Amino acid sequence: MNMTLYFKMLKVHAKSISSYAIGSALYLLLIIGIYPSVADAPGLNELMDSMPDSFLAAFGMEGGFQHVSDFIAGEYYGLLYIVILSIFSLMTSSQLMARLIDRGSMAYILATPNSRKKVAFTQSLVLITGLLIIALTTMLAGVIGTELLIDNKPFEAMTFIKVNLVGLLLFYAISAYSFLFSSLLNDERQALGISGLITIVFYGMDLIGKMSDKLDWLVNLSLFATFRPVEIARGSVEIWPSVTFLFILGTALYALGIILFSKRDLPL
Amino acid sequence: MIELNGLTKEFSNGKGIFDVRFSIPKGEVFGFLGPNGAGKSTTIRHLMGFMKPTSGSASIFGMDTWKDAAKIQERVGYLPGEIAFLDGMDGIEFLKLIGGMRGLKQTNYRDELIQRLQLDVKTPIRKMSKGMKQKVGIVAAFMHQPEVVILDEPTSGLDPLMQRIFIDIVSELKDKGTTFLMSSHSFSEIERTCDRAAIIKDGKIVVVENIHALQQKQRRLFEVTFSSAEEAQQVRNHLNVISVSDNRAEIAVQGDYNQFIQVLGAYEILNIDLHEQHLEDVFLNYYDREAQI
């Protein structure tokens, strides 16, 4: 990697990384903050019972919430976390490669004595660093927030960390295919469009598959099948298969993006 | 220093560059002329290792421009034809980024260039005019004192004063033995600096020629205003008059300036204007000959 490029790029993206990190942490704190009132509300479990099972299953809410970690997992990691990190991964990956190719500024970077592999690898590290910062800030906010805001409720820090680990790795893989398209295409919007579409299709397959009995096979085709925050929080699922799969997939896709970028013609 | 051996790149639409060959010895300033879309930038992209040739090859310092791109860049300076810097930084930050990526420690020459080009490096890049960006690009291409400099349309966007300063810098570096490849779509832009030039048309090299020989062959169009319409008509017999309207005559001159001056000397001339022409019109004979084949 090239240190100058790495730190400059981090600086350029520092604003967006920190706003996503702070936004994500604040949302999580908000969810934690409302937990006591939700947990004590007498009508909630009846309300849950009245809803169709398939609907509850789609959002990981079947069986109600026993612990604060279930509640956070269902309410935050089931949807908002995914939305925030997806947007960050898609936007940043398309800016790190396709935008520079699209606008021609990549020409200046490649006119320095750094191989294309080195440049692409450095850019991928910027993306991964951003993801790490956002995911770790969110996790830290969760640990500290429950400590401060919740009294006498069982909070399992270990399962919460596991939720975060699998979540981070899911986005390691999602950012990897976004980075791959960003390295392969000359048009920033095209790169963003394709990786955005894939992400939406994956998410839709997951949602539909969980709601419908006939289409439940769709779930297993979606990348989101590897991330079941509520089940991880309840300890009812082993995380290591997902962790291994996502890590290998993400690494392979990043490597593919870097290699293909170093071999293709660039319109600079 | 720079060798192109039958460099060919065919795009899916049938366009591209075909069997481009020329070589540039050390210390030469070489012009690369062609109208827009003739294949200048495509050729330069190959020299920078941005594209892989369909066939043929190019080398700088004896190294293959596709395989050894990163190694070649250590001693090459490049000014892209399209000026597009990174967002979110000012001029000096950009130069520090490029310098840092080159491992450049000495910044004296960079600062000297900034001063000579009167560049305000604290301006955010997105607020820069085209000419200012061009200056930043020139500093980025020269600051590490490269042995070979490749410039794609270097003086576009520069005002005449800055063009002079730019030409001075090029001449100084040439005296120190720097080799240049400079592309342009206008002959007047390169004739003051270049030793030799190649002309490219539809992806093929039409001619590689000494700059003085090209100057002889260029066809210039003068618009001469006579004192009367009759006089404007009279010169038709002696000079190549393209058109006459009222007391103004458009006269084409190719090489033989003496005759032009002698004929006009007999008349009272109110004004002489030099027409800016497209490259195709300046080198009509090259472009015509090619068309006939």
Automatic annotation (TrEMBL), chain A:
<keyword id="KW-1133">Transmembrane helix</keyword>
<feature type="transmembrane region" description="Helical">
    <location>
        <begin position="76"/>
        <end position="98"/>
    </location>
</feature>
<dbReference type="Pfam" id="PF12679">
    <property type="entry name" value="ABC2_membrane_2"/>
</dbReference>
<dbReference type="GO" id="GO:0005886">
    <property type="term" value="C:plasma membrane"/>
</dbReference>
<keyword id="KW-0472">Membrane</keyword>
<feature type="transmembrane region" description="Helical">
    <location>
        <begin position="20"/>
        <end position="38"/>
    </location>
</feature>
<keyword id="KW-0812">Transmembrane</keyword>
<protein>
    <recommendedName>
        <fullName>Permease</fullName>
    </recommendedName>
</protein>
<feature type="transmembrane region" description="Helical">
    <location>
        <begin position="239"/>
        <end position="261"/>
    </location>
</feature>
<feature type="transmembrane region" description="Helical">
    <location>
        <begin position="119"/>
        <end position="145"/>
    </location>
</feature>
<dbReference type="GO" id="GO:0140359">
    <property type="term" value="F:ABC-type transporter activity"/>
</dbReference>
<feature type="transmembrane region" description="Helical">
    <location>
        <begin position="165"/>
        <end position="184"/>
    </location>
</feature>
<feature type="transmembrane region" description="Helical">
    <location>
        <begin position="191"/>
        <end position="209"/>
    </location>
</feature>
Automatic annotation (TrEMBL), chain B:
<keyword id="KW-0547">Nucleotide-binding</keyword>
<dbReference type="InterPro" id="IPR050763">
    <property type="entry name" value="ABC_transporter_ATP-binding"/>
</dbReference>
<protein>
    <submittedName>
        <fullName>ABC transporter ATP-binding protein</fullName>
    </submittedName>
</protein>
<keyword id="KW-0813">Transport</keyword>
<dbReference type="GO" id="GO:0016887">
    <property type="term" value="F:ATP hydrolysis activity"/>
</dbReference>
<feature type="domain" description="ABC transporter">
    <location>
        <begin position="2"/>
        <end position="227"/>
    </location>
</feature>
<dbReference type="InterPro" id="IPR003439">
    <property type="entry name" value="ABC_transporter-like_ATP-bd"/>
</dbReference>
<dbReference type="InterPro" id="IPR017871">
    <property type="entry name" value="ABC_transporter-like_CS"/>
</dbReference>
<comment type="similarity">
    <text>Belongs to the ABC transporter superfamily.</text>
</comment>
<dbReference type="Pfam" id="PF00005">
    <property type="entry name" value="ABC_tran"/>
</dbReference>
<dbReference type="InterPro" id="IPR003593">
    <property type="entry name" value="AAA+_ATPase"/>
</dbReference>
<keyword id="KW-0067">ATP-binding</keyword>
<dbReference type="InterPro" id="IPR027417">
    <property type="entry name" value="P-loop_NTPase"/>
</dbReference>
<dbReference type="GO" id="GO:0005524">
    <property type="term" value="F:ATP binding"/>
</dbReference>
